[in-house]
DNA sequence: TTAAACTATAAAGCTACTATAAGGTCAATA
DNA sequence: TATTGACCTTATAGTAGCTTTATAGTTTAA
C-alpha cells in the first residue's frame, strides 16, 4: 500500500504520516525502486493507534512512551495505568480551569449591553480595571 | 521605568514585553542614549490590559481587535460584546469536549488494573481495538 | 577594577501539524 | 508521442505565544 492509500484508510494527510515517521512514531517503511514508501497492515495498525491516542489528547511524547511499553510486553502495566491517570487528572484540571474562566467571562459580559459607546463599555472597563473575580 | 521594573510590576518576563512590542500590542517606548527602553505608566496599563486578556484566554489577535476599538471610543461597543460572546461559546465548547474526553478516559482506565502484564493491559487493548465509545 | 546584574538584538526551540516549493514518476488520454 | 493529471519525493517555512540561547554592550555595587 502506498502513502496515499494509507492516509485515506486511516483518515490523515500524507504529510502527517511522513511527520510521524520523522518523529520516530512510525517505523520507516520499505521503498519501491522509485523511492515510494510501501506500507503493510502493521503500519496501518500503528498509525491507527497513534491517531486514537491523539484523539484521547495524548502528546506525541506520551504515545512514544506507550509504544516503548508495547515493545516489552512482559513487564507489569503499572506505568501505562499511571500515564493514563496523570492524563485524566490533567484533563480534569483543564476542565476546572475552563469552568472558572467561563464564570469570569459571563460575569464580565453581564457588565455591559450593546447600547453603549466603547468609552463606556462595561466589558472593556472590567478588563482595564482588573475586576476579574480572581479565583 | 526600565524594562525589568515594568516586568516585575506586571509579573511578566522582559522578553515577553519585547515580544508584545514586536507584535504591535505595546507601543514602542522611548529609548535612553544607551538604547534602553523607557516606559511610562501608560505602558504599564497597556501591558496589564494585555495580561488580563491573556488570563481570560483571548488570543493576541483578539486583544489587538479590542485595542482597535479602544482607539475609537465613540463607536457603539457591540463588537466588543460580540467578541466576548464568541469567546464564551468557544470556552463552553472546549469544556464540553473535555468532559466527553474525560468520560472516555475514565472508562478506558476502568478496563485495567495494575496487576497485569503489558501484553494483557486493558488500557492498551482498548486503544488498539478502538473501543473508545465514540461521541 | 572587577564581577554581578541589567540591557540589547537576533535566532532557534517548543507542539503537532499544515502549507508551500520544486521536482520526479506513472497511467491515461489526445 | 506528447502531455495532462494524479501521485510521490524532499526540504523549508508558517502557525501561537512565548521561552531559551547566543552574543554583546552597560550599569552598578563591592
Outline the secondary-structure elements.
The structure is a homodimer of 135-residue chains.
Chain A: H1 3-10, H2 14-22, E1 30-31, E2 37-38, H3 41-55, H4 60-70, H5 78-110, H6 122-129
The first copy, chain A, binds a DNA duplex (30 and 30 nucleotides) through residues 2-4, 13-16, 18-19, 23, 34-37, 54, 59-61.
- Specify the CATH architecture of the largest domain in chain A: Orthogonal Bundle
Helices and strands of chain A, in order, run as: HHEEHHHH
State the CATH class of the largest domain in chain A.
Answer: Mainly Alpha
Radius of gyration of chain A: 24 Å
> Can you count the helices of chain A?
6
In terms of per-residue confidence, which ranges of chain A show pLDDT below 50 for 5 or more consecutive residues?
Answer: none
Estimate what percentage of residues of chain A fall within beta strands: under 5%
Instruction: Please report the distance between the alpha carbons of the first and last residues of chain A.
Output: 54 Å
What order do the strands of the largest sheet of chain A run in, or round the barrel if closed? 1-2
CATH topology of the largest domain in chain A: Multidrug-efflux Transporter Regulator, Chain: A, Domain 2
Quaternary structure of the protein = homodimer
Q: Major sheet of chain A, described briefly?
A: 2 strands, antiparallel
Most extensive interface: A-B, 53 and 53 residues
Helix amount of chain A: 55-70%
Structural class of chain A: mainly alpha
Counting DSSP E segments of at least 2 residues, the number of strands of chain A comes to 2
Shape of chain A: elongated
Mean pLDDT of chain A: 94
Total domains of chain A: 2
Amino acid at each position: 500500500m502506498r502513502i496515499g492509500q494509507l492516509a485515506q484508510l486511516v483518515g490523515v494527510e500524507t504529510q502527517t504520516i511522513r511527520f510521524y515517521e520523522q518523529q520516530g512514531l512510525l517505523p520507516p517503511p520499505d521503498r519501491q525502486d522509485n523511492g515510494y514508501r510501501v506500507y503493510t497492515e502493521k503500519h496501518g495498525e500503528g498509525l491507527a493507534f497513534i491517531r486514537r491516542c491523539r484523539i484521547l489528547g495524548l502528546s506525541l511524547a506520551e504515545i512514544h512512551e506507550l509504544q516503548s511499553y508495547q515493545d516489552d510486553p512482559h513487564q507489569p502495566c503499572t506505568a501505562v495505568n499511571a500515564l493514563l491517570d496523570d492524563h485524566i487528572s490533567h484533563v480534569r484540571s483543564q476542565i476546572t480551569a475552563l469552568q472558572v474562566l467561563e464564570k469570569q467571562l459571563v460575569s464580565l459580559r453581564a457588565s455591559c449591553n450593546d447600547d453603549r459607546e466603547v468609552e463606556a463599555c462595561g466589558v472593556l472597563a472590567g478588563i482595564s480595571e482588573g475586576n476579574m473575580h480572581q479565583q
